[in-house]
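User: Structure tokens for both sequences below?

Assistant:
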Amino acid sequence: MRTFGRKLMSNRRVRFGMRGRAISKVMEGLHFLEPVAQILEGAGRSVLDPLPPEHREFALEVLKKFEAKEAWLAVNP
């Protein structure tokens, strides 16, 4: 019984450690969305210029969805 408890605690530590690393990897993967946030906060679209073409295209698609929602809200208050 004691070994089971120790193993359970050990597994829990491993899972928490993996979660921290997984979150940082996800944040690294989503780093290219930072310019999108800057544009939504009022920056110009020139912040997209340094992005690789595939990231820039995806960022523009995301921004189009926000623009469509804003346009709809302007017409339908």
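Moving on to the next sequence.
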Amino acid sequence: MGNLGVAYEVNGLEELAVPCYVEAHRLDPTDETWPYFLALNVGLKDREAGIGWLDVALTLNDRYVPLWLLRGNWMLDAGEVAAANDAFTRADELGAGSPASVGLARVDLLEGRPQEAIMRLESVLENLDHPAVHRVLGQAYRAQGQMTDARIAFARGALDEPLRWRDPLQARKGDFIAGFGGRLVKAENLIKAGAFREARELLLLLAEERPDDRTVISNLSLALSSLGRTEEARVLLDEGIERDPTDIFFRLNRAGLFRESGAYDDALEDLAVVIEGNPDHAVAYAHRGQVLLAQGEFDEAYAAFLKARELGYAGTDKIEYTLGLIQGTKENWAIAAEHFSAAVGQDLADTMAHIYLALCHWELGKADEATASLEFAARLGTHPREVSAVRERIGTTDSG
């Protein structure tokens, strides 16, 4: 009965899953799985009821770490700081590691101990460089009055990605995804997680069901190329383009393969087809800029990147950085400085943008600005060699 509930849940029928979990718990009241799954489902709408089921699961297995981590986070949400501290402490004792430390740091903050939170989180970052950790660290720095460090931490935590942890019980649910769409989403998530081999196996099965599905083919080509099987990926995309010569996804993906193999003219040809049919396609212009840059065609690359920026390309900060590099190569220091300034304005934690901005300032005779940019780059701490090399070039000393 419990497995039927899982099948309902992972295939979008959560309301049918709950009674199955209740019945599964009635049939086997010694298994923590079903009250845990009830907590996760019921707790979305009724947190108090969810906590009740969570506590039932804990009475059955008080050594299952995800239960304590979930309880700690829910207690924090409810303002029950002492209960959250107890939960995260227990998770830490059971070996939860970084997720428990982040939870305890949040407790430290709420109880007015920002310096202790900072120490915990800086230790976590030695092993887990995650946006969620940086966001909490930013709060701790701000509470401690370290505003520059806070700005850097918030910039590094800009990606809204939740902190996750290993959860074998939850992982079992993936085996029950039945629908084509659900399995395709699972494959896409595997690709995002870097599990390309597992994604390939699943996508091959999906391709047998729907051999002409463009999303399956695009994802399969990406999985194959990530595994180094670029020729197989090319064949898939060639076949897709033969069926539909104007398909954007196939053309963009194939252009990427051409660019990686150095077949720049072929890449530009594919991108030209995309742009001809979709003149406002920002990604195509950004890819065109990358190809032209690799060819050393700086003026054309610059124009392509400007067009991508104009059309709202999502990676605008990286485009500004690249535009700055192009203008710096041409020794147009003032224009390059504008681009690098824009890049650090959008991503304060971009160390190399700060370094190149320092060089631009130096070339423009702005020694104080150059020193300030370089010192900020040094404070970020990610590229010490590059910082030292620029210090030697412009004659500044380490203020630390």
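User: Anything stand out in the second?

Assistant: The chain is about 75% helix and 0% strand.
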